[in-house]
Amino acid sequence: MRDLYQRLAVSPEANDQEISQAVASCLHSALRQDAEAVFAVAERRDTYDTLHHTVSDIGKLRARLGLSHGAHWQGDVANDFSLPPDFAISRHDELVDRVSHAVSLYNRWRRWRGPWLLIAVFATGGGIGIALGLALCLGLLPM
Amino acid sequence: MSIARFSPFELLLLKSRSQVDTATLLLLAWVLVHRQHVSEGQRRRRLAQVTAQFRHGHELGPVMSIAHSQDLQAIQLAAEVVRKECGSERSLSVIHQAITVATDDGELSLANHYILRFLADLLTVAPMTLNTLFKELTGCPLATPEDPSRDVYWQTHDPDYHARKAREAEAAEQQHQQANARAEQQQRKKDQRYQQKQQKQQEKQQRQEQARQAREQEQQRQRERQQEQERQRQQQQREQAEREQRRSRQHDSRQQDYRQQEHSNRQQRPSPPPPDRTTRALSVLGLTPGATRIEVRHAYRRMAQLHHPDRFYSESEHQVALASARFQRIKNAYDYLMQTY
Known about the structure:
- The structure holds 2 protein chains of 2 kinds.
- Chain A is mostly helical.
- Chain A has helices spanning 4-8, 16-24, 29-39, 42-65, 75-81, 91-111, 114-140.
- The longest helix of chain A has 27 residues, at 114-140.
- Chain A starts with a helix and ends with a helix.
- Chain B is mainly α.
- Among the domains of chain B are: 3-145, no CATH class; 277-340, DnaJ domain (Helix Hairpins, Orthogonal Bundle).
- Chain B is built from 14 helices and no strands.
- Chain B has helices at 8-15, 19-33, 40-50, 61-68, 72-85, 88-102, 110-122, 127-138, 151-157, 159-240, 247-267, 276-284, 293-307, 317-340.
- Chain B is rod-shaped and about 165 Å long.
- Chain B starts with 7 loop residues before the first helix and ends with a helix.
């Protein structure tokens, strides 16, 4: 399994015309023949694209998990689909971070007796509103 | 600190009673999704069968939908959890389950080839162990995956298309040959017409020549008759004055010799004019009459490179047919010139 898009220097989303141009201008005759066989028929391209998608996903996963040099990742596949390690942090660590953040927020909320605080804020807000309304009514009446 | 919400799989993992089981479940669902010719219900049933003794304690539906959406982050998280939590025994059992799920009765799909190998690398299962496990479970060795990025794969997997294409190519070839043959026929007809014309011209020339020769012969005969008469007259004179003009006889004979020489000179034919076909052939090659053999060869090479049908291969059948007719004409001209020069 080779990455024909990479070898032909086109993007996997390229349309048929761009692909046929790239195939025609390819100098490597064997590669050109293979690319013609794959891209000539729409069904074949679909089949190839689904597999290409899966394998490039696996390449990304391997890069993130540090498995780019595994015993089962050899030959053409490893050559074409290995990515440089991106410095994305481990998903598990991220999950643990987010859970602990959520837990600390919850604890703080509990410690400040959140519901009571909320009721007090609402009560004061309501009181101020009523007072303002009364003052406005009294101020407007003499006029 | 990210402010993103928890993804469905993260929530599932947090709610799960056993994170490893949930993560394994997702990886097995991922393998199942890439199995071909299986319905959705069969997938779910199979997953439930394989994971009957798992202790995750949640529905399988959300896991399957996450696997269907190919959520790379969820799969990465599952892989990390599995790698972190699984000992060597548990890894072997996970690989075992993955292989059974991937190849129940049918063959291993291409995507699952790569997924199984990824799982084996993730769980640090050596290639030998994977091969023996696979052989024990399925009865056939783990082959290297086929390569759909190659022509050979499609020739074995899609032979109908290739047969059709070959037939089309053959038809196109036949058409091409017919076009060529037609062009050749036309060329031949033209040649024949041209040759006939030439023959007529030659005949005309020959007739003219013969007429001229006849006229010349007539003149010659007349001249000979005159000479004869003169000679007779001279002889008469000689007879009359034989004794008086003995010395003049030698002179006469010399004069006769001279005249005969003159006659023979006049009898030589004029050189034939250069044949018309040669000039035509030369003009086909873009040359003027009087070109040397080397010039002809160079001109031929240049023209052949310019008009070779292979140059028009990318344009259209019609262009190729035209070019091959032109090329044939050039080649005929060159062959003719090489014979005559």
